[in-house]
Design a protein that fits this description.
GO molecular function, one term: oxidoreductase activity
Number of helices: 12
CATH topology of the largest domain: FAD/NAD(P)-binding domain
Strand content: 15-25%
Pfam family, one: FAD_binding_2
Shape: globular
InterPro entries: FAD-dep_OxRdtase_2_FAD-bd, FAD-oxidoreductase_2, FAD/NAD-bd_sf, Succ_DH/fumarate_Rdtase_cat_sf
Largest sheet: 6 strands, mixed
CATH class of the largest domain: Alpha Beta
Cofactor: FAD
Protein name: FAD-dependent oxidoreductase 2 FAD-binding domain-containing protein
Structural class: alpha+beta
CATH architecture of the largest domain: 3-Layer(bba) Sandwich
Length: about 475
């Protein structure tokens, strides 16, 4: 949508071909919470983007700031020692401008009070650099962008999958569809990654990923990547990397769009930082309190999938009931509950109960009670003496009833993609841009590597969409 809107602004005629029907049109955007991460200096940068600038809560809200340097540092934290990539610099530098551009086209946002702030001393304190989301989540974001696209004269043709690229003399001059050939001066591929293809996941990422729950659209099966690579497009980025998250073990693939706003993310389970996670061997396998969950859930989803049986259990006691997000009270949330940890572990099918009880006892005995618990910051309330620490928000599991939620790894989108130039043009293996071919969204490689700060994916779509649309129109 951002590519189409940018191309229209530049004077092009734009036809958008959508593989899905009306219900699923919009790709992975529809499955998101509609949150967008971007650099901003303070509330003055946010207020023009708000749908309701007169919300009475704003007077008691501390948004803080999120500098470009901090955004870059957050990305670097997931790079596995790699330096900031060219694509990441473009993402950071273009993030605020992309939000302002969307706002100028009537795409407005709301503060994420329910998931990104805590109340402290009568004020709403935002804590992770992620502050705004679209009303009605990803569905609302798609519909607002679609309205802007169509208002500018863009045409959207549904249920029209592209089956190939048409070239003449090395230049892309159109596409093949099931209904025939369509000619164009330029083609923008904005058709997502390969997360919905079991075969490509297994081939390009490894066997564990065949078992992953697919959180998003069933239509992102790598079509654009395969087409572009047949023309010699350069692979770019980490093909074994992806956005993943712990998900309810019993969720269905591609689920959630039938739920009302506020519930579409409820199969996700990302409050592990308030408790502990155990694998089937009864062992902890991550530092649940390593950082705010925005900075850990993507790699922790991978970690869960790599455990025996591709399963883990998130264990909590009653002290955290009021802090757990709504996804844990969702009518379809699966869990076991008991009055003692012994009884709880006995109810978890496939768990080594004896080992689990020892792990939980060791954890309880290691909690440092001298540091106050504070979920609004990295509070340093950790454990002492454990080989695998919990660095923040450690509290003893001692208040019944106790609950355990079974989770597995869910895949949202893949990180490996294509190399694009500064205009969004797809780069050939030999280094030249393939004439007439552009790409954006999940198809751009080099944006994310071994993790993902929440909300960056939609912003990447906007930033690289603008580049590709303007480039194609030019």
């Amino acid at each position: 949508m951002c590519a189409g809107l940018a191309a229209l602004e530049a004077g092009a005629e734009v036809l958008m071909l959508e593989k899905a029907d009306a219900a699923l049109a919009g790709g992975n955007t529809k499955y998101t919470a509609g949150a967008m991460r971007f650099a901003y200096d303070g509330a003055d940068d946010l207020l023009p983007l708000l749908k309701d600038p007169d919300d009475p809560r704003l007077a008691k809200t501390d948004f803080g700031g999120y500098s470009a340097a901090r955004f870059a540092d957050d990305l670097l934290g997931f790079n596995g020692g790699r330096p900031l990539s060219e694509e990441q610099r473009r993402l950071v530098d273009g993030s605020l401008a992309a939000m302002q551009w969307l706002g100028g086209h009537g795409v407005k946002f709301e503060p994420i009070y329910s998931r990104q702030s805590f109340e402290k001393d009568g004020r709403h304190v935002f804590w992770g650099g992620l502050t705004l989301a679209a009303e009605d989540e990803g569905v609302g974001l798609f519909e607002m962008e679609r309205a802007a696209f169509e208002a500018q004269g863009g045409e959207l043709r549904l249920a029209t999958p592209v089956t190939g690229l048409v070239t003449e003399g090395g230049r892309v001059v159109g596409v093949e569809t099931e209904g025939g050939r369509l000619d164009a001066d330029a083609v923008v591929l904005a058709c997502g990654g390969f997360e919905a293809s079991e075969a490509l996941r297994e081939d390009w990422m490894g066997g564990d990923w065949r078992r992953a729950k697919v959180r998003g659209t069933p239509h992102n099966t790598g079509d654009g990547l395969v087409m572009a690579r047949e023309l010699g497009a350069r692979r770019h980025g980490l093909y074994t990397g992806c956005h993943a998250t712990p998900m309810d073990l019993h969720m269905a693939d591609y689920g959630g769009l039938d739920l009302p706003p506020g519930e579409r993310k409820n199969y996700r389970k990302i409050c592990y930082f308030l408790g502990v996670m155990l694998n089937a061997d009864g062992q902890r396998f991550v530092d649940e309190g390593e950082n705010f969950r925005n900075y850990t859930y993507a790699q922790f989803g991978r970690a869960v999938l790599e455990q025996p049986g591709h399963v883990a259990w998130q264990v909590f006691d009653a002290k955290t009931d009021d802090l757990l997000y709504a996804e844990y009270r969702f009518h379809d949330a699966h869990f076991e509950e008991a009055g003692t940890l012994e009884a709880l572990c006995a109810r978890l099918d496939g768990l080594d109960g004896e080992a689990a009880l020892k792990t939980l006892a060791d954890y309880n005995n290691s909690v440092d009670d001298s540091v106050p618990f504070n979920p609004t910051e990295l509070d340093g309330r950790g454990t002492k003496g454990l080989a695998l620490p919990k660095s923040n928000w450690a509290q003893r599991l001692e208040t019944p009833p106790f609950r355990a939620y079974p989770v597995t790894g869910g895949i949202t989108f893949t990180y490996g993609g294509l190399k694009v130039d500064a205009r969004g043009g797809v780069v050939h293996e030999d280094g030249h841009a393939i004439p007439g071919l552009f790409a954006c969204g999940e198809m751009v490689g080099g944006v994310f590597y071994e993790g993902y700060p929440g909300g960056s994916g939609l912003t990447s779509g906007a930033v690289f969409g603008r580049l590709a649309g303007a480039g194609a129109a030019g």
